[in-house]
Specification:
The chain is α+β, with helices and mostly antiparallel strands and about 625 residues long. Helix content is about 20%, strand content about 20%.
């Protein structure tokens, strides 16, 4: 559903919302949001673990999803050369060089936003997840077929294969998950990856001083995490606590030999944590350098699956999507990721197929929406929220702005999710007359002389905030502003750089809940999750160290009961399905969030780039970067 960056478990779990992610990707077993804001989108909001979201993992939270762009000038060809001793081969090829023999050593990929960080288990921006996936590996990973396959683990632990066990029943039901680890995996500094690294990730996530949008599995559900030797780790849940995405609970490894003395409260402080400026992973590519114009990676020759087939991967940051399109046309880029394109470029992108560039389109796990801050007095009456939904012409948005490639959405789950239902949901078709009646009933009377709605003697003024530099968002918000103006509501528009909008609490608009109406996207995961996004315990505040991605501040007792039961008490789809069906009806009536539409993911790759396999989920296209080969 939605980040920011989807952290690894979030991405994986988030894979299980992943948007709003702002990064923004699962349900009950990931540190990151599953509905990542996109990822606000990027998301995170993974707010994404895979919440909300960013993105990584399992929750249906999301990370702010792809498309959360910053408003900065497009990089020039004279971008600073990589530092820290990069070989000449790490300098990206441009122009015709990309297709020559020299270009085969370097794959250059276009992105629209600089990753706000590349820290493990932190944040929820989807753009961060794209790069992180090439740098770091998980115990288990999703492929392009949406199947979980072993990576650092020897197998995916499941009840069916004995890797997980469920004993007892009801309140005495207890779940254990055992991972057998490979013994040939090393960090990029040469140190072995062991069970200690997984346990270190658990200790970090359960620490109340560590800021993370999605940690309830580690803080509330797990009883212990222990190792049997260096290459076996066992997760034991508390009795009665069931995690539907238990098989990815172990996707939390961090380089403990580097971080063992880092204060969890200072995880993102470059003076305290050396990983801030120099990420160290286990993946096919090691980090070389980063600046606002590019991220440079170089192949890791001791990678446990074999040395990657391409020596260098360079991500070029090009916030201006038209400039990025031009560089694709000129052959200066070998590929581009989902965050890099707007739907209004679809015809131009398809035209590139005659120039050797293939366009990939898949229904996205990302959904665009407007969070409503329920701390704002005028938004506390659900009739007002319903009026806003009736008063926004979502059909025109999808038909005219999105070229008819998608439909209005009426739930926080997308139609491709197994728990999605339309039964009993109000479709809220555009009806300004109905919207006006609801506003009248809620006490927002129209002052005929001034043409504005008045509430408790004051004109109703609302601010609609979203990311800067995004043409699609600009067009959408302008249409919404006009729609609501027709109802007599004064709506101002605020466009914020993604780094600020999806930034860290308490100052960030979303995570710090310092907004009125916030438009962004969550990236959904395979599993609906939703606990981090909409359970009242997940309202971020100073008191809970800003844990959770319930940015609207929604409180509903029955909603809480259903989400808790679906995420922590039941493990089969058969029993969870009716819980989510009822919960979606409550959400659809209460409308703490105004769902807009499901996105379509668009990425590109040169015909000569082999094994580019974009997924229909929040797993980024870099999931198999070690297999990429760029031919002449």
């Amino acid at each position: 559903m939605a980040h920011h960056k989807l952290n690894r478990r979030l991405l994986t779990l988030l894979a299980l919302l992943v948007l709003l992610v702002p990064v923004l990707a699962a349900c009950g077993g990931t540190p990151a949001a599953q509905n990542t804001p996109g990822t606000a989108a990027q998301a995170t909001t993974a707010p994404a673990t895979q919440p909300t979201t960013a993105a990584a993992a399992q929750p249906t939270t999301a990370a702010p999803a792809a498309g959360e762009t910053e408003t900065t000038a497009a990089p020039t060809e004279a971008a600073a050369a990589p530092t820290e001793g990069d070989a000449a081969a790490t300098t990206p090829a441009t122009g015709g060089d990309t297709a020559t023999g020299a270009g085969q050593e370097t794959i250059t990929i276009g992105m629209s936003q600089e990753p706000p960080d590349l820290l493990p288990l932190f944040g929820s921006a989807y753009v961060s997840t794209i790069v992180e996936e090439a740098i770091d590996d998980s115990l288990v990973q999703r492929n392009e077929k949406n199947e979980y396959v072993p990576q650092i683990a020897k197998s995916v632990p499941r009840i069916e294969n004995g890797g997980a066990k469920l004993t007892g029943s009801g309140a005495n039901a207890q779940l254990t998950v055992t991972y057998q680890l490979r013994d040939d995996v090393t960090w990029h500094d040469g140190e072995k990856f062991t069970a200690d690294d997984v346990i270190a990730g658990y200790n970090l996530l359960k620490n109340p001083n560590f800021k993370t949008p999605s940690a309830f599995v580690y803080r509330d559900q797990l009883a212990s995490v222990k190792k049997n030797g260096d290459y076996e780790v066992v997760f034991t849940y508390k009795k009665g606590e069931l995690d539907p995405t238990y098989y990815i609970v172990g996707n939390i490894g961090i380089p403990s030999h580097i971080t063992n003395k880092v204060d969890p409260a200072k995880w993102d402080d470059p003076k305290a944590n050396p990983l801030v400026n120099k990420p160290v992973g286990t993946g096919p590519y090691r980090f070389v350098s980063q600046n606002p114009e590019r991220v440079v990676l170089q192949s890791y020759d001791k990678y446990f699956l074999g040395t990657p087939k391409t020596k260098n991967v360079i991500f070029r940051i090009i916030p201006d999507t038209q400039a990025l399109l031009s560089q694709l046309q000129a052959g200066e880029l070998n590929a581009s990721t989902e965050d890099a394109h707007q739907i209004n470029q679809f015809e131009d992108l398809k035209a590139l197929e005659g120039r050797g560039v293939k366009t990939y389109t898949v229904p996205a796990a990302t959904w665009e929406h407007i969070d409503l801050n329920l701390s704002v007095p005028v938004l506390q009456d659900k009739r007002v929220r319903q009026a806003l939904m009736y008063g926004i012409d979502r059909k025109t948005i999808t038909e005219q702005i999105l070229f008819g490639q998608t439909q209005p959405l009426n739930s926080w789950l997308t139609p491709t999710n197994w728990a999605y239902t339309e039964k009993g949901l109000n479709k809220y078709e555009y009806n300004p007359e109905k919207a006006g009646q609801l506003l009248d009933q809620a006490g927002l009377k129209l002052d005929e002389e001034q043409g504005v709605r008045v509430f408790k003697g004051q004109p109703v003024t609302l601010e609609l905030m979203t990311t800067a530099g995004n043409e699609l968002r600009a067009q959408t918000t302008q249409l919404i502003q006009q729609n609501l103006s027709d109802l007599g509501l004064l709506v101002s528009l605020s466009y914020q750089p993604a780094a600020i909008y999806f930034g860290d609490p308490p100052d960030a608009p979303l995570a710090g809940r310092k907004y009125q109406m916030g438009l962004y996207a969550w990236v959904s995961g395979d599993d609906p999750a939703g606990f981090e996004l909409y359970h009242s315990s997940q309202i971020p505040s100073k008191e809970n160290n800003y844990t959770g991605q319930n940015y609207p501040g929604w409180k509903n007792e029955r909603n809480d009961q259903l989400l808790k039961q679906a995420n922590q008490r039941e493990i089969t789809r058969e029993k969870r399905l009716p819980l989510y069906a009822e919960q979606q009806k409550i959400f659809n009536e209460e409308l703490p969030v105004l769902p807009l539409y499901q996105r379509v993911n668009i990425s590109t790759a040169a015909n000569g780039l082999q094994n580019w396999k974009p997924t229909p989920t929040n797993t980024p296209p870099t999931w198999n970067a070690h297999e990429w080969v760029l031919n002449k």
